[in-house]
Design brief:
mainly alpha; elongated; disordered N terminus
Length: 442
């Protein structure tokens, strides 16, 4: 048996040669046609010998089929079907039609045996993983990636790129579940594997850098976040990839915003919005509008901010994306609270929490909506209701591992204690929040 040829491959070829010969009405002697002996054909059909590529081509010609059919059990028509189904599934992903995308990717992945082209399995696995993540089924996505990783052999040069992609997608799952330490391990693994790859994969490298930037941003390591996102920007501009450029500009906007560079952040966000619109991704344009509204609010243009939020809300309602609509209502609630319209703020925050539905993958925004609602109650003198909500805020933010968000809750608790004339406790909470918000090196 040739080096690198699996037992499964040998067995598959054996069964296909035997079945095709019988279907053609040939004996083993007739198939050999004087080129070799009946005994050699028998060895092939028992899986004891694996034909060379040259011999496979000769056998295929004798049997009237394509060599690929003998080697893999697949025809050129099968490969064309795989390509069509992967393209259809990707279109559904881009249109945020995640359940339908799974209905394409999952049966395709499950139908592909060990001898099927790896690119087909990889594409189906990747698509199904992203659809599951977007639906909030992150644990299921992580299990799928674990299965995919188990099918690869470490150290094989021809699987390094795929190993890197699995590590990257696993890191995304860890980030989504707020397990930051595990995410950093997988991002580092992905980049190390990409360094080993024989063929550069700058698209995947850009994805790793932009997603790792999110981790650093959540951990308030702004400089590390900036370095990663600037590297991602360099890579995507060289790639001439409009969609990826839109995604990276969005993340660059968020980093600049956290650093207080609001005008720069708005410019990145406007670029992102325009590029998502250019590729027809109206839903993600809606997400960018939500962020743009926050920037315009910070820059004092509330009328533009509210108009952008209403546009985004309409997009998400039309797309039946309840959690995304919840994000927008949370942002609207905060603007109305700051403008003193506490009834409207309370209504929007409550609706946001209903739409967010307690989903763990949206826990940070749930905490934010709870906090807005707590402040609305507090500013109406409803101390007990505010205190009950702040307990939920603390639980939500604790799951995010984001100290800066927890500090916001402590600040509001300080305001609550002042209303109770408990100045010493208020001062303690303010000090704790101020300490947490000090710059830190991670």
């Amino acid at each position: 048996m040739k080096d690198g040829t699996s037992v499964a491959s040998a067995t598959g070829i054996a069964g296909r040669v035997r079945a095709l010969r019988r279907a053609a009405g040939m004996t083993q002697v007739e198939l050999a046609d004087g080129r070799f002996t009946k005994q050699y054909v028998s060895q092939i059909e028992r899986g004891e010998v694996v034909p060379s590529d040259e011999l496979l081509a000769w056998l295929a010609a004798r049997l009237g089929v394509e060599p690929m059919l003998i080697a893999t059990g697949l025809s050129a028509a099968d490969l064309e079907r795989f390509e069509r189904e992967l393209a259809t599934g990707q279109d559904l992903l881009d249109e945020h039609r995640y359940p339908e995308a799974i209905d394409i990717f999952r049966p395709l992945r499950q139908s592909l045996g060990l001898e099927a082209p790896r690119w087909a399995y990889r594409g189906a696995m990747r698509g199904e993983t992203w659809a599951l993540i977007r639906l909030g089924k992150v644990t299921e996505a992580a299990e799928l990636l674990g299965e995919a990783r188990a099918t690869l052999e470490d150290g094989r040069a021809d699987t390094v790129d795929e190993q890197a992609e699995i590590a990257y997608l696993t890191a995304v799952c860890c980030y989504t579940l707020s397990t930051m330490a595990a995410a950093h391990v997988e991002f580092a693994r992905a980049l190390a594997l990409l360094d080993e790859a024989e063929v550069p994969n700058d698209r995947l490298r850009a994805d790793v850098h932009q997603w790792r930037s999110r981790c650093y941003r959540r951990q308030r390591d702004w400089e590390a976040a900036r370095e990663d996102i600037e590297r991602a920007l360099e890579l995507v501009e060289a790639l001439d990839d409009t969609r990826r450029s839109a995604e990276v500009n969005l993340q660059a906007s968020l980093v600049a915003e956290r650093q207080g560079r609001w005008v720069l952040a708005r410019r990145y966000a406007e670029t992102s919005r325009d590029r998502f619109e250019a590729v027809g991704d109206i839903v993600t344009k809606g997400r960018v509008l939500n962020n743009l509204a926050g920037l315009n609010h910070s820059l004092g243009d509330d009328d533009t901010a509210i108009a952008q939020l209403r546009e985004a809300f309409a997009i998400f309602v039309d797309a039946q994306l309840e959690a995304e609509a919840g994000y927008v209502l949370s942002s609207l609630a905060e603007i109305h609270r700051e403008r003193g319209d506490l009834t409207e703020a309370e209504s929007n925050a409550q609706r946001a929490l209903v739409l967010l539905g307690g989903r763990l993958d949206h826990i940070q925004e749930i905490g934010t909506a709870q906090l807005v609602l707590a402040r609305a109650h507090l500013e109406q003198g409803e101390i007990e209701q505010a205190e009950d909500l702040l307990a939920g805020v603390d639980e939500s933010y604790a799951l995010t591992e984001s100290v800066s968000h927890q500090a916001r809750s402590w600040m509001v608790r300080g305001e609550l204690e002042l209303l109770r004339d408990n100045e010493s406790e208020a001062a303690r909470l303010y000090r704790e929040a101020a300490t947490a918000l000090q710059p830190t090196d991670l």
